[in-house]
Design brief:
Layout: E1 2-6, H1 11-22, E2 26-31, H2 47-50, E3 54-57, H3 63-73, E4 77-80, H4 87-92, H5 94-115, E5 120-126, H6 149-168, E6 172-177, E7 180-181, H7 190-202, E8 209-211, E9 217-218, E10 221-222, H8 223-233, E11 242-244, E12 250-251, H9 252-262, E13 268-270, E14 277-279, E15 285-289, H10 307-313, H11 321-336
Parallel strand pairs: 1-2, 1-4, 2-3, 4-5, 5-6, 6-11, 7-10, 8-15
Antiparallel strand pairs: 9-12, 13-14, 14-15
This protein binds NADPH dihydro-nicotinamide-adenine-dinucleotide phosphate (NDP) and guanosine-5'-diphosphate.
C-alpha cells in the first residue's frame, strides 16, 4: 500500500508517517522547500525511519505539481494535513491562510478527481468549525459557526470534500478533530508554550510564562492516538465524517497547573483578568497574562462527543489528560538537559 501525506513535516505528519511505516506502507510526503533545507518534525525522526520516507518537494498551492504527482504515484491513500494551522496567525494573515487552506485543499481535491480517482482522501477538519458552541458536547451534527479566518477556511475545505464526495463519487472523508498535542507540537500553541516554559523554569529561568486567555476551555488529546483514527477513517466501506476528541474539557489555567505539578510546583492564582498571576509556593511569579496573546474572537467551550467514531471505527483516545501533560513536560525537560 502506498500513502501520500501533505503536511508530513508537521506534528501529525510525525506520528502518522511512523504509524503507516509500522503497518508496512510505502510512505510519500510533500515538503515545502525552505532556505535552510530543514524538514520540520521529520528532522526529529530517527534516521532509520526518516530514510524510509520518500519526499516530494512542493507546495499545495501549486495545482499542477499536485496533479502531476498524483498522476505519477497514484497512492491508495492520501492524508491532506498541510495547512496554515495557527488560529492566532490567521487573524493577521487571513488571505494567505485562505490561499493555503481553501485553495490548497481545492487543488488536492481536483488532483484526486482528475488524476487518481481511486485514491482515498482524508481531510484534516477541526473542532474550530463549532466556533463558540452553545451545545455541549459537540458531534458531527452540531452547528458550524466559525469564528476565525482559520475556521472559515477549514469550513470551506470540509464542504469541498463533501461536495466532491457526492458529485464525483470519490472516497473522501473529513476528520473533525479536537485539539491534539504532543512533544512535537509547534512552540506557539499554548500547550507546548506552557510545557517549554515549565521546563525552562525548572532549569532555573527567572522568566514567567506569559499567556492570554487562561479561561479558554478546550478538549485536548494526544496526537499519537488521533492519527490512528485518521487511518481508520480510510479503512471503512464508505467514506464519512467523524469527530475525534476525548470528551473532557479543561481550561488553559488547568493545563498550566497540571504542567507545574509535573515538576512539583503547586501554582497559586491571584488577581483576575489581565492582572491574574500564577505564583509558586515561595511567591515567585510563574505565569503572567498579557493582552498580546488574546484573540480578537475566542473559540472555546469545547467537549467532544466522539460516540460515532467509537461505534463505527472502534476508536477511542488512549492517553489521559494528565499523561499528555506529563509526556510533554518530560520531553521538554529532556531536550533542555
Ligand atoms: P502543523 O502546523 O504542525 O503542520 C502543518 C503542516 O502543513 C506543516 O508540515 C507545514 O509545512 C505544512 N504546510 C503548510 N503550508 C503548506 C503549503 N502551502 N504547502 C505544503 N505544505 C504546507 O499542523 P498539525 O500537524 O498540528 O495539524 C495537521 C492538520 O490538522 C492541519 O491541517 C491542522 O489545521 C489540522 N488540525 C490540527 C489540530 C491539532 O490540534 N493539531 C486540530 C484539528 C485540525 P512547514 O513545515 O513547511 O510549515
Ligand atoms: P487553537 O485551539 O488551535 O487555537 O490552539 P492554541 O494552542 O493556539 O490555543 C488554545 C487556546 O489557548 C485558545 O483558546 C487561546 O486563546 C488560548 N491561549 C491562552 N493563552 C495563549 C497563548 O499564550 N498562546 C496561544 N497560542 N493560545 C493561548
Amino acid at each position: 500500500m502506498k500513502a501520500l501525506i501533505t503536511g508530513i513535516s508537521g506534528q501529525d505528519g510525525y506520528f502518522l508517517s511512523q504509524l503507516l511505516l509500522s503497518k508496512g506502507y510505502e510512505v510519500h510526503g510533500i515538503v515545502r522547500r525552505n532556505s535552510s533545507m530543514t524538514q520540520g518534525t521529520m528532522d526529529l525522526l530517527p534516521e532509520h525511519i526518516k530514510s524510509n520516507i520518500i519526499v516530494h518537494y512542493g507546495d499545495i498551492t501549486d495545482g499542477n505539481f499536485l496533479s502531476n504527482l498524483l498522476m505519477k504515484e497514484k497512492p491508495e491513500e492520501m492524508y491532506h494535513l498541510a495547512a496554515q494551522s495557527f488560529v492566532g496567525y490567521s487573524f493577521q494573515n487571513a488571505l494567505s491562510t485562505y490561499d493555503v487552506n481553501i485553495g490548497g485543499t481545492l487543488n488536492v481535491c481536483n488532483a484526486v478527481k482528475d488524476a487518481s480517482q481511486d485514491t482515498r482522501l482524508y481531510f484534516a477538519a477541526t473542532s474550530e468549525l463549532f466556533g463558540q458552541p452553545r451545545v455541549t458536547p459537540q458531534n458531527e451534527t452540531t452547528l458550524f459557526m466559525p469564528r476565525s479566518p482559520y475556521a472559515v477556511s477549514k469550513l470551506s475545505g470540509l464542504w469541498t470534500i463533501r461536495t466532491y464526495r457526492e458529485a464525483y463519487r470519490l472516497y473522501m472523508t473529513n476528520g473533525i478533530l479536537f485539539n491534539h498535542e504532543s512533544e512535537v507540537r509547534g512552540p506557539e500553541f499554548v500547550t507546548r508554550k506552557i510545557t517549554r516554559g515549565v521546563a525552562q523554569i525548572k532549569n532555573g529561568s527567572p522568566d514567567p510564562i506569559i499567556l492570554g486567555n487562561l479561561s479558554a476551555v478546550k478538549d485536548w488529546g494526544y496526537a499519537r492516538d488521533y492519527v490512528e483514527g485518521m487511518w481508520m477513517m480510510l479503512q471503512q466501506d464508505n467514506p464519512d465524517d467523524f469527530v475525534l476528541g476525548t470528551g473532557e474539557s479543561h481550561t488553559v489555567r488547568e493545563f498550566a497547573e497540571m504542567a507545574f505539578d509535573v515538576i512539583g510546583e503547586k501554582i497559586r492564582w491571584v488577581g483576575s483578568g489581565v492582572n491574574e498571576i500564577g505564583l509558586s509556593q515561595e511567591g515567585n511569579t510563574l505565569v503572567k497574562v498579557s493582552r498580546e496573546f488574546f484573540r480578537p474572537l475566542e473559540s472555546d467551550n469545547y467537549r467532544a462527543d466522539y460516540s460515532k467514531a467509537k461505534k463505527v471505527l472502534k476508536w477511542k483516545p488512549e492517553t489521559t489528560f494528565a499523561d499528555l501533560v506529563k509526556i510533554m513536560v518530560e520531553s521538554d525537560l529532556k531536550s533542555l538537559n
